[in-house]
Amino acid sequence: MRIDKMLANLGYGSRKEVKQLLKNGAVKVDDTVIKDAKQHVDPVTQTVTLNGEVIEYKEFIYLMMNKPPGVLSATEDTDAETVIDLLELEDQVFEPFPVGRLDKDTEGLLLITNDGQLAHQLLSPKRHVPKTYFAVIDQEVTEDDVEAFSQGVVLDDGYKTKPGELKILKSGIRSDIELTITEGKFHQVKRMFQAAGKKVVYLQRISMGPLVLDETLELGEYRELSDEEVEMLKTYKVK
User: Is 118 helix (H, G, I), strand (E, B) or coil?
Assistant: First the structure.
């Protein structure tokens, strides 16, 4: 790839600023000063340094965010703040996108990456990757609901969902539950409970496939996935 594109992608400045760095002789490839912005380099086999420091190139970025409510799971929006707006500029330069969507008022685990192939793997309807949510329901959730969800629920538009695994954590005037589903219809968790005559008053995604929300992340915070987590996602197969 072109040296100016590589440096700009890694957050070392705009194309214009990078060209200035090159002009000043600050960039070397395999100990040779490179001043031509159009020079092609192979960041895997060649050593690129900036002011004597070796630049580590990575093609893909993998981030786990604890999405806060009120923020859109989108790359850009003219009116509302998006999850990409919450990223540092050094991460935004990779042009990542959220894998799947969480409703604006829903919190929790959101994977953000620029790896389109991995995103497709995780979102493909054929893969049935499970997603688990914690929710607070405004009424008593019963074993009848557990049974109904295990059979699939008919939504307001007539669509019957695939079976969902409902666990009651606390039952009462307000109930705490965990629900695992393998598809991602619009507002699905809310609509499944709506079909049961109940209302979701709080919703948080806690896992997606093998990836579990890091509880040390405050709302709006994010971190890079570990190599182990990335490998887990790439090799994940639904049982």
Answer: helix
Phi, psi of 15 (to 5 degrees): -55, -40
* CA Rg value for the chain: 22
Pair 202, 103: CB distance under 8 Å: no
Q: Are 223 and 63 in contact (CB under 8 A)?
A: yes
Give residue-wise pLDDT tens across range 18-73. Answer: 999 999 999 999 989 999 999 998 887 889 999 988 888 788 999 999 999 999 99
Separation between Cα atoms, residue 133 and residue 169, nearest integer Å: 12
Contacts of residue 221, Cβ cutoff 8 Å, sequence gap at least 6: 65, 66
Copy the structure tokens of residue 27.
Answer: 């960039």
Q: How far apart are CA 105 and CA 103, in angstroms?
A: 5
Residue among 91, 103, 115, 145 flagged as catalytic: 103
Instruction: Count other Cβ atoms within 10 Å, centred on residue 117.
Output: 10
Question: Encoding tokens for residue 2?
Answer: 């072109």
For residue 201, what pLDDT band results from cuts at 50, 70 and 90? Answer: very high
Q: Determine the Cα–Cα distance for residues 114 and 93; give it in Å rounded to an integer.
A: 10
Closest CA to 145 of 197, 209, 219, 187: 197
103 is catalytic: yes
Write down the number of H helices and E strands in the chain: 7, 13
Query: Are 4 and 22 within 8 A, CB to CB?
Result: yes
